[in-house]
Amino acid sequence: MKIRAAVLNEMGAERPYARSKPLAIEEVELDPPGPGEVLVKIAAAGLCHSDLSVIEGNRPRPMPMALGHEAAGIVEELGPGIDDLKRGDHVVMVFVPSCGHCLPCSEGRPALCEPGAAANTAGALLSGAKRLHRNGQEINHHLGVSAFAEYATVSRHSLVKIDRDLPFDEAALFGCAVLTGVGAVINTAKVSAGSSVAVIGLGGVGLSSLLGAIAAGARRVVAVDLSDEKLGLARQLGATDTFNAGSADAVGEVREATGGGVEYAFEMAGSVRAMDLAYKITRRGGTTVTAGLPPPTHTFNIPQVNLVAEERTVKGSYIGTCVPTRDIPRYIELYRRGKLPVDRLMSDRLKLDDINLGFDRLHEGKAVRQVVVI
Fold it and tell me: Are 75 and 91 in contact (CB under 8 A)?
């Protein structure tokens, strides 16, 4: 079938993107689902820094590629071998398909699925197939999803079924921002009630972490960002303290206000500078968690002696150390009960044709979560 999709033909375009238009809205050919695959009509897809980093060239991927990985939609057609979904079901997309058989999957860590990671790196679906074409040329899939499009053919293992009463623009956020941010707090760090928490970087993932910390019962939740507007939103969402990361002594200010630092610090900005700040405001015996994705050439240095003398822990968190089929329904239920007001993270709703402008806003830090409604 022929569909419209946002295709990135070359990385590293000059800004503003509204002028250079790195994402071309093109008519491409989409194959029907093969065995174990599903055709989904895309209803809403969020703009994320993981998409932006591919556009910038900081996360190299094979070109051309149809972008978009945080999305929700409606099951349109089922490939052979699928009997647990039906046409018309509502689904959230997950950007690491889990095979269920490799060692990480067998250990209950599907976010680290080895075949899923290999397929994502190759720009393919979990089966190894590529279902997008343009004039006989293959178009690569972004993280097994490619959701900036009218339809997507994806692996069944990239989908989680949800109830039909959740609006699609809100449902889309659970596939990445909420799963990653809340999961980092609940699954990776296992923040306990009464703990002190700091979140550095208040994008969609960072603010989701903040909401997760509040839901977990943290007694103190510190928000740190370069944007005073985002710090204001963090206060509205329940942050007990806010600090501008641009301050000459941001580390000292946080440590003084928290009596020596926080027990858990979450780096969600995807920069070494933010990670350095997060580590320095973590108290003795505390845990520093990063879910940011800086360019692969960037490195973070710490005094090794501190890890021992202060019993410090540094952890990475990918997709919130999640089990999608378990966590997405749980987080949606928390949202319905008012414990995770993720709808307040919505900055704007866009048309597919306005997507380049949306990525300008994301780069400039003027948006938390924008959603393309298709």
Answer: yes
